[in-house]
Amino acid sequence: MWITTLGDYPSAVDSSFRFTLGRRILVADGAMGTMLQKFSLSLDDFQGNEGCNEILNLTRPDVVAAVHSSYFEAGADCVETNTFGANLSALAEYGITDQIEELAETGAQIARQVADKFATSERSRFVLGSVGPGTKLPSLKQVTFAELLDAYYRQTVAMIRGGIDAVQIETCQDLLQTKAAVIAAKRAAKMAQLDLPILVNVTVETTGTMLLGTEIGAALTALEPLGIDAIGLNCATGPDEMSEHLRHLSRHTNLNIGCMPNAGLPELTADGARYPLTAAGLGDALDSYADEFGLAIVGGCCGTTPEHISQLAKQVGARTVTTREVTESNRASSLYIDVPFTQEASFLSVGERTNANGSKAFREAMLAQDWDECLRIAKNQAREGANLLDLCVDYVGRDGKADMAECAAKFATGVTLPVMLDSTEPAVLQAGLEVLAGRCVINSVNYEDGNNPDSRFCKIMPLVKEHGAAVVALTIDEEGQARSTEKKLEVAIRLISDLVDNWGMDLGDILVDCLTFPIATGQEETRGDGLATIAAIAELKRCYPRVRTILGVSNISFGLNPAARIVLNSVFLDECVKAGLDAAIVHAEKIVPVDRIPENQYQVALDLIYDRRKADYDPLARFLELFEGVKAASVRSRAAELAALPLYERLPRRIVDGEAEGLAADLDEALLEKTALEIINDDLLAGMKTVGELFGAGKMQLPFVLQSAEVMKTAVAFLEPHLDKEDASGKGTIVLATVRGDVHDIGKNLVDIILSNNGYRVINLGIKQPIQAIIEAANTHQADAIGMSGLLVKSTMIMKDNLAEIDRQGLGDNYPILLGGAALTRAFVEHDLNEMFSGQVRYAKDAFEGLALMDTVMAIKRGEKTTLPPVRTRKKIAARKAVEKSTPSPGIRSDVARNIDVPVPPFWGTRVAKGIQLAEVSRWLDYRATFRGQWGIKGLVDGPSYDELVETEAIPRLRMWLDRIASESLVDFGVVYGYFPVVSRAEDLIVLDQFGDKELTRFTFPRQQRDRKLCLADFFRDEKEAEDNGPDVIAFQLVTLGNAVANATRKLFEANAYRDYLELHGLSVQLTEALAELWHSRIRNDFGFATAETTIDSAIAKQSYRGSRYSFGYPACPNMEDRRKLVDLLKPERIGVELSEELQLHPEQSTDALIVHHPEARYFNAG
């Protein structure tokens, strides 16, 4: 029986550890397991429990002590106890969980004895109690929070008895497990009456997130409020892959930061796995990070040895911790992401539809225990624009604790958004907190039953404090709900003082709800309630700028019909936000921008809110009059309209509307009167014809065209069993391919979609197709035409070569050729290519022009009197005065300014960055390029404008996609970038090694033949300038989204989910560009230019920053062969990117660039 009286504990841990932590860099030890493998240990040494290193604390304390000694001899300040696996799930693998305390205390005692042996009066040596993650993940319900909490508590108590100076919770893979370990350590320290520092290291995988998908920002948000002393990273990767996560920590927390990487990523050899990073390599990496990220504690993990630690001690040991500039913000988090309470240009939207008291749909799903439906409702709120989810399961007659445990557990892994736990019952709140890994907001506390030990306030606040939650405080006291402005402020100030002074809450984590009440009841005492709330919010924000304000907005309109509620809620919310409201609990879909509310409704709503009654005017009466008989959805639903149409009008209308619900029943009915082929030709294709006409007339958007095509595909698939073989052959056959060397297929696939859903058989060969494969497919399938596509400029030349090869084989008259792609022009195809080709070649600017051309090709084959559209010859343009061109003399520079200050980069060479957060990348998303350029959204003739469509269609779809990308892990952002010294010589740019001594490679850029005679090399110091002032600097970057998004788009195409395919593909293209923009911004920040910049929108639209980013293929650097040199320098295989023989980066959503810092560097044509 283990003794647990206070007398068994040290009177104090070594206070010098807390004193030292954060002042000078502490050097910890390296791997325990790696060192143990160097000893000849028998199975008896492990008591038959092979691999259970903790057993050695009992059987071979000499070996464990020897490892500790070797690290202290190498210069370590502290060692970790051999207790990493002395926890519930790890020891359960061996059936020895009853030995947790024994193994933990003995391990601590061994380390303590060794540390004391090496300690001197000038230098303390410290012991960190190692707490590992175990093998079970509570977020996946493999073990309960309570079980972990109990076992971690027992382990920490035992280590305290053994003499540890601090707790090191490490290799954390699940935030819920980490929270259990931290809370257990806090409880153990409190029980032992010790000030015990707690250090936490999370493990971020090569994917850039923790094992379950947690971003580093979410980890920091969840763990910092628990009261830890340090946060850092260990295990899984080497230091290179940790830089981006350390950067985030260094800029967003004042906690001490630690870094304990593996000795690189393991390499498999004939002798097994080996870790390749040398001691010098680890030393150099952490030396750089110590300065750049302000590291307070460093060490090593798997594969590191005393040699590595000795190098760290020499390079960073005893160095003063670098001071950091930190931007902190109050946030909530889920298992996956963090969400700031301050939203740019908006309010924090808390979804109210997962509340059993406010949502009938959610309540019914909960009562039926349909947890999947509850989850679906939650996901819909995320896609409608909610930032947090208010989860309330309180309902009369239900076991709230059980309901919360089930529902919150579903939300924990199924929804990316953080959760606001809404209950008056402490046990229900605790059930939610013990299954949600992120940082929650507790809704709520108040003084309804006072502030005594038995009050709800005093029962809920310990949970809030222990779990590091934020809290909603309602302006309710012993007298009831505060109605007047003065009373609201009185209660709010009392709550704030109590929460800060007695519970240690940060002002920014308190969300005060000033409450509002229905103002349309007709009762005199309610008329001023809206105004009182607005005034209270304004005054509270004036007195406490950092305190958050929140409101359940829909209370204001209780009792009105749905249409009136939407208007009053929207106007009231707008007024509250103007007064300083930070957050609102709303149904986002039922809030409309006030500029879209009719002026008369808007003004009367304002009058009602501000109680602007006159002798002859009552705004309440007028408001009720305005909405008498008005329904929220005043037009009949599309389904109802369709049902009212005759069958053979309904079928084509289904295609036009993209409405598949009820399609099967309609087709069954039609088959009673017509053949399947007649239905396709007479009815379904008529719908597709209308779709094409609407698109051509500017009355239909591309996403809806594709939605129509999906319904067409579904209909044809339904009818296929009823078609004869001859019927199924289609109207004609075309072979489609993206040409050799080009990996872009979106345009080709759109043509496939439109043609195949208009009755044609499409043989889609895919990307990078050589001409012989195209010809063979055309011959095999007896094609009626060939279509070739390409996005790259060089693809136009390959098409030209392909036409020559078709002619060479004597097939020019056999196959009309349709060409399309972003780099093509009509003039080039129908003039230049048509002149050299013996057959017919035409340009198709989009899929519908391709359809029209194919219709004509087949009409000619049927003998109809028609011809392909005539080729369009080049327009003759009146000769302009010739611009004088001259060949610049070799070595003559342009007039680019010299003597420009050259920035000093934070490091030389290259680095890898992983784990970049989606929210950070999406801030750089170019909405116009995404919506208009990629998704094809444009203002409609006689229909909604572009801006209206962005508001109603594009933004909701974007939210949906960003949510799916996050929850389904569709992107794996990776960056490799670097800084190199350079000098220029005429048109050459010479890249040097970090010492400036050796030439690594060189680029030769073309020079303009006119205007300023610019050349990219001119923007850098030449050799003479470098000799006098030192070399210049260039940055290179290569970014990627990874393979998952390309695989997902391919699956969508194969599943005939055409609209989703278009949108995900287009968004992935623009997210790649956004990542490139973000990283260019990061490089400018490294160069010290960021402070002079304005907004992200301005940076994207106007290039309002210093310097430029150039990619190979741009007019200023057109030589694609130079990409090989960039790839050789950056080695992007470290982030999963390869360069093909055709000089294309794979995965497709990858892009590279060179960064020129010169202030005059802008895009120019070197032709």
- Give me the count of strands: 36
Strand order of the largest sheet: 1-10-7-6-5-4-3-2
Structural Rg: 34 Å
Q: Number of domains in the coordinates? A: 6
Number of helices, counting only DSSP H or I runs of 4 residues or more: 40
Q: Going by CATH, what is the homologous superfamily of the largest domain?
A: Homocysteine-binding-like domain
**CATH architecture classification name of the largest domain:** Alpha-Beta Barrel
Assign an overall shape. Answer: globular
Examine the coordinates and then state which fold CATH places here, giving the name of the CATH topology of the largest domain: TIM Barrel
Task: Please mark out the parts with pLDDT under 50 across 5 or more consecutive residues, or reply none.
Answer: 1-7, 633-637
Strand % is 5-15%
Q: State the major sheet.
A: 8 strands, parallel
Give me the secondary-structure category. alpha/beta
Q: On the 0-100 scale, what is the average pLDDT?
A: 90
Distance between the termini: 86 Å
* CATH class descriptor name of the largest domain: Alpha Beta
Q: Into which percent range does the helicity of residues fall?
A: 40-55%
